[in-house]
Amino acid sequence: MKKFSVIAWIAAFAIPLSAGVPAHATHTASPAAARVQAAVPSTETDQTLHAMHDEMERARTRLQLPGVEKPFYFEYRLMDVDVRAVTASFGSLINSSTTRNRFMSVDVRVGDYHLDSSNFISEDGFQGFLGSTGQVGIDHDYNSLRQDLWLATDQAYKQAVTQMSLKQAFLRSLTKPPEIDDFWQAPPTQQIDPRVNPDWTSRNWEEEARKASEVLKNFPQLNGTRVNYYMVYVTYYLMNSEGTTLRTSRSLAAIEAAIDTQADDGMPLHNFYSLYLARPADLPDPETVAKSLAQTGTDLIMLRASPLVPDYTGPVLFDAPAAGSVLAQVLSPSLSGARPPLSMGSSFDAVMERFGGRSEWTGRVGTRVLPANVTLVDDPTLKEFQGKPLLGNYAVDDEGVIAQRVTLVDNGTLRDLLMSRRPGPDFQKSNGHARSANLSDTVPLASNLFFQASGSLDAAGLKKKFLDACHDDGHEWCLEVKRMDNPALSSIRQEDFNDFIGSIAGGLSSGERMPLVVYRVYVADGREEMVRGGHIEGLTLRSLRNILGIGSDSDVSTYMQNPAGGFAGTALGAFGSAQGGIPSTITAPSLLLDEIEIRGFHGEPRRLPLVPAPALK
Amino acid sequence: MKTKPMIRTLGVSTVILITAWACVAGDRPPQTATPPVLTAMQEELDRSMAGISKAEPPDYFISYTVADRQYSEVSGSNGALLSSGDSRARWLEVQTRVGTYQLDDTHKLGDRQPSWTSPGTTMALDSDIPVLRREIWRETSRQYRAATEALIKVQTSQQVQVQTAEGNAPDFSREKAHVSIGPRVDITVDRKPWEERVRKYTAAFSNSPAVLNSIATFTALGTNQYQVNTEGTKLAFGQVHYRLELYVQSKAPDGMDINRYANFDWLTPKDAPTDKVVFDRIQTMIAETEALDNAPLVDPYAGPALLTGRAAAVFFHEVFGHRAEGFRQKDINEGQTFTSKVGEQILPEFISIKDDPTEASFRGQMLLGNYAFDDEGVPGENVSLVDHGVLKTFLMSRSPLVTIPESNGHGRRQLGFVPVARQGNLIVSSSRTMTDAQLRQKLIELVKAQGKPFGLLIDDIAGGFTFTGRAQPQAFQVLPLVVYKVFPDGRPDQLVRGVDIVGTPLVSLTKIVATGDTPDIFNGYCGAESGSVPVSAVAPAILISEMEVQKKETSTDKPPILPPPAHDPEGHYPGQNNTAENNSPTKGQQP
Hints:
A: alpha+beta; seven-stranded mixed sheet; B: about 600 residues; alpha+beta
């Protein structure tokens, strides 16, 4: 199974559509912290909820180290993950698996909402003997789950105590203690969705993957291919000591394919295809998938035969799908308003910076950050847009806060940021944007992001503006990007992905971006010619100040955010796959940007294989 | 702040790929029709060699290995099922050597650590020969490119760095071709009964308040391996292995981790252990755990020690076996203590040691280190390592020594690693044997003669191929787990914990004064430079005249604050609940 995980975790994520109508999330009346745990009704058959409740009650009342403070906050998270994954290549099966796992993560905090033990990176990590996270039994068995929760809670408490004392020592070394609270006290929420049982047998996924991938045999110039069907059902449990109880169900069905080849001069080239839907039953039949894969193959063969792109600086027109990818990469580090963790070592900050993880919008609320006709909104509450399903939709976030529509930028002025329960310099309260994959730490992330503008141009108008700007700059031709690369999806092997991260990671914070399908457009007659081998430099948030024109079109693009390690919210956060990714959408128009620098390939081309490829049929 | 996630399931599950090479019986299997994958491999090999042998630099050797694995795993913890699934995958390894047998791209450079992982790739499972060939071609191109880059580095390094004697050893041995097409193996596993079993086994562990956590894992592995190379070798053979592992974790009051582990291995489903056998073992493990939790720490000590057969087997594997692995003699980072000692007396003259992968069983029990061909296509050989205490030779892969130019069929690897010389079935025999009673008597005599307050009896040792929980032990490391003080005045033996062996364990082997008369077997997976491979060690009990031990550092992590939920006298445990929705037996129930 294809898996590009930076940290070797398993699960994947998806987004709402449970079998029945989900119960509406409700806030209970009292906003104050509910210290006594709401009882789980005795009619509730789900032993998981009973076990979580009972162990949390026991810990809340009796867990305490002698002479040490008791915890003020407990949180149990569980995730049931059912995965069906099939991989095929050129009509042959590579891998087929069906798995069911349950993961657990326990958080215990000491201190109080103003200053607690969380969000602190010390130099010596506490190594518990079992840890507060892990894999637990899938039977919904009361006894075994209580035993697992007992051990994890014990570990989490001890870690919290150690972390707190290290954190307090560190804070004493600062001239000024932080004024921002560590944790926002959320009103309790209850939402119990019906549970879902996946049915993997209604379609023969192995046969479908074989049939769909076989069409690529018609492209003998391809070196390798991988067609991955990845389907997942998730049930997520959250219970905390404030009275929040969640059981939400969601699913995702994905087809992700990668194909690669080498040009005659040796340059390695690749292309990818991706399709994300809510349910396995929604996936198209193999004949339809084959048609799309054939197009992917055709595009790559054309790219292969294209001339190299020379170095270029000037106006670049990003077609709506490409613009969406660029915006996702460029904007996401700045959308979060949560304060990053405190760190004893400056190396953490340096690493985050290198990956482009520094926010440029902190402290700039109320100022102009984008052109005056642009509005940027993130809305998890929307289920569809222009007839397309929005997979970033959810009702309650992973911390139990009800999802809210957030207008980030209003006519160019920064108004709001995405918040979790971790307050930041600009905002205190969560607006229900805390997201995670496989029980990783929750961070504020985009869900369904909309980049919209007034006074936009229709296709002809935008094209004319493009060619005029090109002509005014004295160019004979200018570049149009129709598609951006996504290395998480276009790499067939983990090492190719690692190579990519290694090669561009240093340049991410300075705006290095990877286009995939680029055309040279001649000013004189509008003629288009595909070119290959370039990468963009210096495309950062700053570049959005040089927007020459915005189209009136809009493209809804679904992609997986990558939460692994420090990637969440960094430029690499936009490169995820169905396995371990967080489903999100971006709706964007075509964008005409000025002063964009594209560098052609200047290195040594890789050798071609000495022996030509054997025939596929 | 949450800790990094820690994987609690046993290492044999999703993290480590397991390969088992236990061939049934020593005769040559009957010839059968050539499987499609082997046809694809041979066709592509011929074509590749024709092309690349004329290139610059030319390939002088190419090999293709495909391991087709069927794997089932059922795992349970604390009375519930953790996971249950099957998988099937094919793994392709391509080796393209450039240069010459004397000096090629794999030559180790100076004191740089070589990369031990062998790039490989997943491969199509079906029988579409053109598609299989395409995948092989793709990997061949990649490997050839990497090999040519490596060769350039090697050639540059040769010019600037000092070469040791073993640096002049050839990089690759010349071996005969071997052809053997055996029947395919297939395993079909009904996981449902095993799901029930792992639930009830781990539920039984939860009966003891001393047990914090328990895991039971059943695995079934069927591997069909195919290999061709340009020297004319063509092999196809299959092996099956079933295993059940039990693991419990506990903590002594001072925070020391107490772990117990047991494994059962079998070749055919009818030889699976019965519930009775497993439950008996569970009871023993619980008793040991509870006793160890309450045992005092050992005091520093130097004096006579008696190792039971099982402990001795692990001891020999770790302390001697790894040093007999030939590639270590080439490595200037290793101690190379043995290289110059061939022909010398290194053990008492009544001890002989051989490594024999051709043995499938020993006195009715299966040996995990049994295989017909090693992972380089060389037939496994019975190698006499120590003859009456004299070191004769080393275990060899196709990486020769100056004095030993050929492989003796011990080149082994876990999928994804480059093969190096590894043990198979390490078998220790003795010509000075005593009964257990006599050995014990002799121990006490030595204790009195040396004027010590007690002697040590070591019943269980963990090493690089026994499960030691989350720490990954180094080769050569031995951790005594079950140790008793044996008193000369007839007092009952006293269990102690926290024993750490001081000094070079190898020296202890020279101080063996006698052995028992009944060999014991340990089957396990040994982790070293070429990954995890199945091995066995067979040894009698040994009596050592002097061994030095000290107190192990305890972890600073205290036991849990609250008692286990099911053993909490203050309640908070609604026992009347229907405790599991799938009606699995509640804790404490045994059939």
